[in-house]
Amino acid sequence: MNPKENPGGGSSPEEPSLLSPRGAQVVAALRDTGDMAVFELADVLEVSRSVASTAVEELVQLGVVERRIDSHDRRRRIVSLRAAAARLPGGWRSDT
Questions:
Q1: Stronger pLDDT, 82 or 89, i.e. the higher one
Q2: 3-class DSSP state for residue 38?
Q3: pLDDT per residue as tens digits for the range 11-40
Q4: Structural domains in the chain?
């Protein structure tokens, strides 16, 4: 696979090297607080919306999170963990 196609450099979410430190923070935040909009995630992580959005996009490409349209406000995109996140090693959990 071309590195430009997968910025994490791997092909499977089971490989811990795929997650950047920021990606691991996103996964931990979603595990701790549940689904949220990108701007809410930025607030939780204390980063800009641009930084949060970039991290989310990386995780979408890896199949770890998904974005969906908020059913109550079609302008909002909600970020949630996919089943692939459950297969990540325990070391990526925020509670370990």
A1: 82
A2: helix
A3: 444 444 578 899 999 999 999 999 999 999
A4: 17-86 (1.10.10.10)
Q: Phi first, then psi: what are they for 49, rounded to 5°?
A: -60, -35
Q: What pLDDT does 85 receive?
A: 75
Query: b/e map of 70-87 (b: 16 or more CB within 10 Å)?
Result: eeeeeebbbbebeebbee
Going by C-alpha positions, the residue among 85, 82, 80, 81 that lies closest to residue 13 is 85
| SS3 state of residue 7 | coil
Can you spell out the DSSP letters for 47-90?
S-HHHHHHHHHHHHHHTSEEEEE-SS-TT-EEEEE-HHHHTS-G
